[in-house]
Amino acid sequence: MTSADLYRTVRMIRRFEERAIEFVRSGEIVGGIHPYVGQEAIAAGVCGALTDADVITSTHRGHGHVLARGVDPARLFAELMGRESGLNKGRGGSMHAADFNLGILGANAIVGASGSIATGAAWALRQRGRDSVAVTFFGDGAMNEGMLLEAFNLAALWQVPVIFVCENNGYATTMPVESAVAGSITGRARAFGMPAFTIDGQDPETVLKASMAAVARARAGKGPTFLECVTYRFDTHHTFEHRARLTYRSPEELAAGRSRDPVEIQGARLTADKRAAVDAEVEVLLDAAAEFALGSAHPDPAGALDYLYASPEVLR
User: Fold this and answer.
1) Crossing angle of helices 73-80/3-26, nearest 10°?
2) pLDDT band of 315, cuts 50, 70, 90
3) pTM score over 0.85
4) Could you give the CA distance from residue 267 to residue 254 in angstroms, rounded to a whole number?
5) DSSP states along 218-238
6) Which residues, in sequence order, are CB contacts of 232 under 8 Å at separation 6+?
7) Cβ–Cβ under 8 Å, residues 20 and 80
8) How many Å apart are CA 135 and CA 160, to the nearest integer?
9) pLDDT in tens, 223-242
10) Cα separation of 218 and 210, whole Å?
11) C-alpha pair distances (Å), 186 with each of 64, 125, 190, 228
12) Could you give the count of Cα atoms lying within 13 Å of 144 in the half-sphere of its Cβ?
């Protein structure tokens, strides 16, 4: 993956999220979203290290992950708007995007739950003889969830080819990580016998390099790796905060956090002309994506129970 490819991904995620926030404000997206603004380097770097054979699981803050994995932004916009043309026919919404064709086993609103799903998927794929790796994303708040620690244990015991990516943005909703996690995040992972590293989650190329090493290790049969990506959430935990106006972060802290912008860090590695060309390309793509989503039909209420249960054909 080239520097331009990484920049295109972080820029596209940033502008997608900024537009999504506008659609929340206009009412086109009902219920709000958890913006990924500021954390784009992690999704871009980790997914840039994967092949088509690999799989990921995501979180309530998952738009960046699925976009970096290759989801069509038009279908993701439509999904957030609850439209029939959405990624999951408008039934998954912001927190449950999935596309099995792209190896996206689903975002998950249950904190820490995606780690167990990814570990099980990676184990199953290896049992089938596939040379696949699974990646699971989660926040620092998930480090206190038992189901995630159970996933660490099984992954280490069975040498499962899974990479645990902790996006440590400093807060579990509004609770500072230092008030929630005893000891260290990587210390917990190492206690299960897996290598664990703390890396700069604001630099796409740093994340890519660390992820490539973790993927190579997993693919070689050496088991799981844990990456703590230190990052910062530029926007709100949830767009509801735009109205609630919570004050758990000072203006000085916000300014310091935003001073290391992954879009600017990666953009500085391109020439001005190349960067401008990528920016224009992204705007054209997202203009078309927004137009597609806004012009898409809402689901027919008569089909509200469709897809609720597995069909007999699928079960066979």
Assistant:
1) 20
2) very low
3) yes
4) 21
5) HHTT---EEEEEE----S-SS
6) 38, 39, 169, 170, 202, 257, 258, 260
7) yes
8) 11
9) 999 999 999 999 999 999 98
10) 13
11) 23, 27, 6, 7
12) 13
